[in-house]
Amino acid sequence: MAKSKETFNKKEKEKKRLKQRQEKKEKMEERKANAGKTKSLDDMMAYIDENGNITSTPPDPKMRKVYNLEDIQIGVPKYEPQEEDLLRQGVLSFFNTGKGFGFINDAQTGERIFVHMSQMLEPLNENDKVTYEVEKGDRGWNAVNVKKLPKK
């Protein structure tokens, strides 16, 4: 007698294929049965609450916020020079007399600002308290019109 041509793998693949066909047939019958029972538009609606969560209940109209179209900025905002106090105060934290530059630590922001000796109105040493103005340079902010604060 000849050996059977159906192997275990072939039988398993056939079972799997028949099972998938049966599931597909059941899904099709279920769709046909529910074809007349469509959901209303209100049942299908989803809402987003003020926290960004999806809910099935509509939001409260009292919580609604109104925005003006003119207030919405798209893109990069236009540059508007800030009218802040132009005269700043700080401490000359580092100064290299050989190369003629140093850095000032701003008293309010703690920011380090570059200073060149050509912008100093009088000779200064490290740890001197100074007043200065800032201007935009090639590599960042530069201190100009640097003066030593009188000691109290």
TrEMBL record:
SMART domains to which the protein is assigned, alphabetical: CSP
Localization (cell): Cytoplasm
PROSITE patterns with a match to the protein in the record: CSD_1 (PS00352), CSD_2 (PS51857)
UniProt entry keywords in alphabetical sequence: DNA-binding
Molecular function via GO: DNA binding
InterPro entries: CSD (IPR011129), CSD_CS (IPR019844), CSP_DNA-bd (IPR002059), NA-bd_OB-fold (IPR012340)
Ranges for domain CSD: 87-148
SUPFAM superfamilies (alphabetical): Nucleic acid-binding proteins (SSF50249)
Region named Disordered: 1-42
Primary location: cytoplasm
Pfam families: CSD (PF00313)
Record-level GO cellular component terms: cytosol
Keyword Secreted: no
Leader sequence segment: none
UniProt biased composition (Basic and acidic residues): 1-12, 20-33
Record's protein name: DNA-binding protein
